Amino acid sequence: MEETTNNTAPPPHQPPPTAFPPSHDHHNSSSAAAATCAKCGGPTSYPNPPPPSSNPTYIPIRFPAVNLPMNPTNTKEAIIRTPVPQPQRVIPLEPPYNFQTPVKVISSQNDIVRFHSSSTCANFLGFVVCLSESIKSHKLSDPCPVSPAVSAALVGVMEKLISFVDEIPPAPQSSRYGNVAYRTWHDRMSSHAESFMLELLPPNLAEAAVELVPYFTDSFGNSSRIDYGTGHETNFAAWLYCLARLQIVKEDDYQALVSRVFVKYLDLMRKLQLTYSLEPAGSHGVWGLDDYHFLPFIFGSSQLIDHKYMKPKSIHNDDILENFASEYLYLSCIVFIKKVKKGVFAEHSPMLDDISGVPNWNKVNSGLLKMYKVEVLQKVPIMQHFLFGSIIKWE
Questions:
Q1: Is the predicted pLDDT of residue 268 greater than 90, yes or no?
Q2: What is the pTM of this model?
C-alpha cells in the first residue's frame, strides 16, 4: 500500500494561525516568502515585519491622551500636537463703546477654525491660563488681594443665587433628572440679572449690561432642557473675561476670582445639580473628567503644583481627601464625584484614574489646559452656543 502524505495541514500540536506565538517560537523561516517552518514543516503564522518606514507616522502617547472613547485617533493626535496654552494679558476694551446684545455665530467646524485663529480666542484662553497661574501653589484660604468689586459684588451675587435655591424647594416628581422647580429658580435669577450687572458697573459703563447679561444667565444651565455642562461653565469664564476687559476686575483680582468667586460659583452649581437633578449637557460619560465641570480641575491641579506631599496618586487616599478637599479644588472635585457616583472609581471615572498615574501636577495642569482647548473650545456642539458681541468679538 502506498503511503499518502498531506503537507497542507499542520501537525496536531501546532497552534491555530491566530494564536500568540510561544516565547520559544521555532517557526523561523530562511525566506520571507517561505510558507512552512524549516524545522517542523508547520505553516508560519506570523509574516516577517515590514522594513522600517523612512517617514514613520507613530506619535508617542503622552498625557492626557489616555483611555479616550472609541475612534479616538483624531482627538488624541490633536491633544498631543496642541502646544500648551500660555498666559496672556487681557486687552482692555477702549472707547468709543458699541455695546450690543451678543449673538451665536459658530455653526460649523470652519467657524471653529476661524475662531481659533483669531486674537479673540487667544486672549480669552490666555485669560483662563492667567487664572490658573494666579492660584498656582496656593490654598484656597491663602490671603490675597480682594477688591470691593470681588468681595461685595461678585461674591455677593453668588451668595444671593445660593439663597434663591434655599427659597425654591424641588417639586415632587418621579423622574430621575430635570426637576421643574429649576425653571422657577432660573426665571428668578434671570429677572435679577440686569440689576446685578448694574451693581457691578460704573455709570459710564452701565450700557455694558446689555452685553454682560446673556453671558451671566447662560452660566447656570439651560432652563428648557434643565441641564448644565462645560459650555455653561465656559460662559461663566467668558463673563469674568468681559469684566476684565472692562477693567471692573484687574490682574490683582485674579487669585480672588478663583479662590473666592469661582469657588462660590462651584458651590452654587453643585447645589443646583443636587437640588434640581440637572441633566449633564453633552456629557462624555465615563470618558470625561466629570459630568459637568472642567475648569476646577485646571485650577485645582495648578494649586497642587510643587506640593511637598500630595501627588496625583493621592486622590486615592481617603484621609487626604477628607482633610484637604476644602483647600484644593481638584480634591474637592474627586470628593464630589465619589459622593454622587457609586462603585469602583476606576470604572466610573477612568480618565481621572489614569491621570492619577501622571508623575507630577505640572504635567497634569499643562495636559488639562491642552485638553480644555481641544475638548471644549474646539467642539462645535459646545461652542455653537458661545456668544459674540463688542467685548468678545467675532473676527
A1: yes
A2: 0.81
